[in-house]
Specification:
Largest sheet: 7 strands, parallel
Mean pLDDT: 88
Strand order of the largest sheet: 8-7-6-9-10-11-12
CATH topology of the largest domain: Rossmann fold
Radius of gyration: 25 Å
Strand content: 15-25%
Number of strands: 12
Length: 396
């Protein structure tokens, strides 16, 4: 009798949902897999051959373990309606047989609106507790034919129509003014741009799709998800940042320090999770707007700001390897002193002093940042990830 696959309706899936089972693997199972796959490599089947290698004993096929991951996705979690989009696998240790393994699956992300998510599956040899396979599966849900037709016909909003016509969607945080607004405006001719601001902008005729978003609200992500609806995302440019105070770390208010650090750590991590859940097979782009006041040239008078921006740089570096599994690049653009945003009211003599320190003979401008954004969000930058790109005009 064919076993029946588990079924989780879309509303029942959530990050953290897990399942595991144990399975015995012996010579019969390995030979059966070899017969089905056509892989009769002696490392898996011949005791004498394996004894002459560094493994000394026959090992289970790596793809056999991928089959266990496929069984997890198709039969247990998420189960019956799943369709696998891609797999990324690692085999940190050989799996010797006969053995008993523990196969564990956990949903790491799920978006009910787009019906896309990620499943992590591990295979562990039970006796030694040795991890032998780690598999990340990107999946979606297939639907009944009638349901698919109904959902397709429901794509009525202008933004969704533009996406259907081939324009990818990007999200720009902190677009209420300054550099964030410049970035959003520069992208709207090529992308469907969702722009966030703390104050409601409504339909101002700019061609931007405004989202009122306050990162101080603990439920900000729910609001963002609701505003995006079912739109897939190709990119996120994270330009939002709280205004810093001019003080040292010792004299700064601790809550303000925590706010600066949160914008460089937790918020970009949560934004990346949104991008993970909404990105499509073509991958995506995550661009953070940092500052040379981060790691390169910390400013003692803006210590909390420098600390937050330095955290942002390390967050970018650590996110990049994870995001690469989904063909998403993660980079930071770090301009030096700019005469806009928090510096727009800076005295002229200070501007001249800053300019004199730049070998290029001018201050960094919005156009310099926009040129980097245009490159990083384009297809030609697909292999550049985890980079902190300082715009200094030659200043060491």
């Amino acid at each position: 009798m064919t076993p029946e696959a588990q079924y989780f309706p879309p509303h029942a899936l959530k990050a953290g949902l897990a399942h595991e089972w144990e399975q015995s693997i012996g010579p019969e199972e390995v030979r059966a897999f070899a017969a089905v796959s056509g892989d009769f490599n002696p490392l898996h089947l011949s005791v004498d051959y394996a004894a002459m290698t560094q493994y000394q004993r026959p090992i289970v096929h790596g793809v056999f373990q991928l089959g266990l991951a496929s069984a997890m996705a198709g039969m247990h979690l998420p189960g019956r309606q799943v369709v696998i989009g891609s797999m990324q696998s690692q085999f940190p240790a050989p799996l010797y047989y006969p053995c008993q393994v523990v196969v564990r699956g956990e949903i790491t992300s799920w978006n009910e609106t787009t019906r896309m998510g990620q499943l992590k599956v591990t295979v562990m040899e039970k006796a030694s507790r040795c991890l032998t396979a780690s598999v990340f599966i990107s999946f979606g849900y297939h639907e009944e034919k009638e349901s698919c037709v109904a959902e397709t016909s429901a794509l009525q909003t202008p933004q969704e129509k533009a996406y259907q016509d081939g324009r990818h969607a990007v999200l720009v945080t902190g677009a209420g003014g300054g550099l964030g607004r410049e970035i959003a405006e520069s992208l709207k001719s090529e992308f469907v741009v969702y722009a966030t601001t703390r104050l409601s902008s409504g339909n101002d005729g700019s061609g931007l799709n405004w989202i009122t978003l306050d990162f101080d609200n603990p439920n900000w992500r729910d609001g963002l998800e609701g505003a995006l609806g079912r739109m897939p995302l190709y990119g996120i440019i994270h330009a939002a940042w709280p205004r810093p105070s001019r003080s040292s770390l010792i004299t700064s208010d601790l809550a303000m320090i925590e706010e600066q650090v949160r914008h460089g750590t937790r918020i970009p991590i949560e934004l990346m999770r949104v991008l993970f859940e909404r990105s499509q097979d073509q991958g995506g782009r995550f661009i953070a707007v940092g500052s040379t006041y981060g790691s390169k040239d910390p400013n003692l008078h803006l210590s909390a700001y420098s600390l937050g921006k330095a955290c942002l740089e390390n967050c970018v570096r650590l996110l990049a390897p994870e995001a690469a599994r989904r063909q998403i690049t993660v980079n930071a653009i770090c301009p030096s002193f700019m005469p806009l945003g928090m510096n727009h009211a800076t005295a002229e003599r200070v501007m001249l002093k800053e300019k004199a320190l730049v070998p290029a003979g001018r201050l960094c401008g919005a156009g310099d940042v926009l040129a980097m954004v245009k490159y990083l969000i384009g297809r030609d930058s697909g292999f550049m990830s985890g980079q902190i790109l300082a715009l200094t005009g030659g200043k060491l």
